[in-house]
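Hey forum,

I'm writing up a methods section and want to include a predicted complex as supplementary material. The small molecule is NAP. I've pasted the protein sequence and the SMILES. Can someone with a working setup run it? I'll credit the forum in the acknowledgements.
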Amino acid sequence: MSHPSLNYPFAGRRVHRMGYGAMQLAGPNVFGPPKDRAAAVAVLREAVASGVDHIDTSDFYGPHVTNQIIREALHPYADDLLIVTKVGAVRGDDGAWLAAQAPEDLRRAVHDNLRNLGLDVLDVVNLRVMGNIHEPGEGSIAPQVETLAELQRQGLVRHVGLSNVTSAQVAEAQRITQVVCVQNQYNLVQRADDALVDELAAKGIAYVPFFPLGGFTPIQSEALSALAQRLQSTPMQLALSWLLHRSPNILLIPGTSSVAHLRENMQAAQLVLSDEVLAQLNAIGGSDAHRAA
Ligand SMILES: NC(=O)c1ccc[n+]([C@@H]2O[C@H](COP(=O)([O-])OP(=O)(O)OC[C@H]3O[C@@H](n4cnc5c(N)ncnc54)[C@H](OP(=O)(O)O)[C@@H]3O)[C@@H](O)[C@H]2O)c1
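Reply by user p_vandermeer:
Happy to help. Structure tokens for the complex are below, copy them as they are.
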């Protein structure tokens, strides 16, 4: 039984493995504005005060609203704060998530992120591939990655990552530019990426699961609740700690609009799980837990 390492090299620095995902701050259905903007600002300030140095966002959250709230809460940014954003989609008037992957879409998205975050250069930009909405599908992503590499050469983007991609797409992108992270759906009950997590760990590439708690429908399981009660912990803390124990290259970006949930989630980094508990969590993930859509 050993404590998982609490930081990892990412985008030219070391970050705490417990980061924060800002998507929930936009309001219901990630379509802003939020009911309580001051509460959203408070969550971000609490996150940074608690040691978060990696925030995940996108200008299509809101749209624009989440980035504007991040700017209001945290600008001018601390030198050690890494803000990771993503491009590749836009929102319809009805809140629909629409692919926007043409070169001019990607350039516009980078400029939207720069303006709304109040930055001259973006630390990490993930290309969000839109083949299937929540799971990757094969197909070349070379034209989009080449556009991001061009934006890198122009000095607007420091590092490139990928989201919702396959191993073959990571390999294709790496022939164009260095890939610093992959952000795919993965959690206690969604483990389609098990092999990819290990492959990226061997290459020193960060794996940043989206929906680490199950997303819009957080993971629910009687067995998980019973185990959490036995360990004087919570189901969400165990789901996060399982990810921290799963592989050292996994960086967490749990999302919450609540300071109380943020505090609960941050405490998960302190948990040390025995092999016996990890085996029980593995069994829960493979059996009765609710699988989020
Ligand atoms: N690349 C992509 O395609 C993609 C897709 C989705 C998300 N993301 C990124 O991944 C981040 C994380 O994903 P996510 O926020 O959608 O899902 P998540 O982190 O799996 O779960 C968020 C949900 O869990 C609830 N929650 C959080 N902490 C809780 C706690 N301690 N107890 C009970 N409920 C809790 C939140 O509600 P409350 O607000 O009430 O706490 C919210 O409904 C996002 O913020 C975003 O940055 C990326």
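Some notes you might quote in the supplement: Confidence is low (pLDDT under 50) at residues 288-293. Residues 21-24, 56, 86, 128, 163-164, 183, 210-216, 218, 236, 253-258, 261, 264-265 surround NAP (CB under 6 Å).
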